[in-house]
Amino acid sequence: MHKLIYAIIHAKKESVCRLMNFDIGIQGIKGRELSAVSFNDIWAVVSDAENKDSEMNNDDALEFAAVTEELSHMFTLLPMRFGSLLKSDAEILKVLEKNYDAIRNNLIKVEGKSEYGLKVFRNSSDIIPVPELAEVKQAEGNSVYKNYILNKFNEYRADETLLEYSEKLKTEIAEHISGLNAVIKCNKVTGGNNVYNAVLLLEKEMTDNLTQTVIGIQSCHKELNMMLTGPWAPYNFVDITLK
Amino acid sequence: MGADIFNKKRDVTIVEILDRVLTKGVVISGDLVISVADIDLVYLGVRLLLSSVETMEQLKLNKGKTGTDA
Amino acid sequence: MKENKILYGTEDMEVLTAQLDTLSAITDSRLNVNADNVDSGLAKLVLTLVELIRKLIEKQAMRRVEGGTLTDEEIERLGETLMKLENKMEELKKYFNLSDRDLNINLGPLGDLM
Lengths: 243, 70, 114
Known about the structure:
The complex is a heterotrimer. By secondary structure, chain A is α+β, with helices and mostly antiparallel strands. Chain A has 5 helices and 10 strands.
C-alpha cells in the first residue's frame, strides 16, 4: 500500500512512536483514514493511497488541499504538493530523517505565519502607453518580412513597457507594505491585464492590517484593481525538495 | 447578479487553491516518488536544463550590453 | 473548503473572469496525464522546449532591431527566418493538437516557463 503525504507538521512534543493513529477528526481524501509518521518533533500526515490512483482529478486535489487547510488551523506545517506517493511508512521515515534539518528550518521560518496572495490588474491596456517610434511605422512599400519584424518589435516594446511599469509597482507596493514585516515574493504576471502577482508571508494576526494597507493602495490607484486572498498555508514559502 | 459574483469569487478561490496545491508546496525528488501524474517527474528533471538555458541567455545579453559583443 | 478566500477584491466581474481564465490555464495542464495520453504529454514537453528557445531567439532579435544596427537586408532576412519558424511551430502545434496554453508549463519553484 502506498502512502500519500498531505503535510509535514511541527509537533510540540517529541514522539518516540514512529507510526501512530492520527485521530483529530479529519479524514483524508476519498474518506481515507489519516495516520502520522514521526521523526522527533516533525510528523508527516499521511493516508493510504492506491498504486494506480490514476483517477485523481481536480476534486481530489481540492479535498487534499482542504485537509492541509484544516491541519493548518491546528499546527505549524509545510504543505505538500498534491500527487506525491511514497512506497511505505518506512520510506517516509527515511525521508524525514534525512531532511530533518531542512524541514525543521522551514517550519521555524513559517511558524505563526500565513501566506497571502496579492494580484493587481489594470482596468484596461490603455493605462500604459507604448511609445511609438517613427521608424517602426508600417509603410505601404514594406515587404511582408519587414512588416512582420515591425509588428513583432511593437509587441516587444509593449512587453518591455509593461515590465517597467510592473517594476515600479513592485517598488511602490513594497514601500506600502514595509511596515508589516512581511516577506514578499513576486511571481511572474499571469498574462492579460495582470500587472503584479505576489505572495506574502506574515504574522497571522496581521491579516486586518494587510487588508487595510491594500485598501489604502487601491484608493491611490483608480486605474488598478487589487485582489487580496488568504490566509493560505505557506505553499509558496517552502524551499525544499525532499531527497 | 449578486449570486453570479458570489459564484465567481468562489471559483477564483478554487483556482487559487489548485494553483497552490498543484504547482507549489514541498516536492519529493523524482527518484523516490511515485507520482500520480508520471509526466510531472520529467518536468522536474527538465528544470535544471531550462534554468541553465536562461542563465546562458542572460550572460549573453549582459555581454552584449557592455559592448564586448559584436 | 468552498469558502471564499478573497479578503479584499474588486466587484468588477471582468477582472474576476480574466483571473479565472489565466489561472485555469495553469491547472488544466497539470493533471490528467496518464499512460493513455503520455504521448501527447511528451509532445507537449518537447514543443514547450522548442517554443521557449524560439521565444528567446525572437527576443534576442528584437534587441538587435532596437539597437538600430541592422541593415534593411538583414531585417528582411531576419523577418523571413522568424516568420517561417513561427509558422512551422503553428503547424506542429496543430499536428499535436496543442494550444499556446498547453505549452506554458508550470515548473514549480522556477515559475512558469513563459
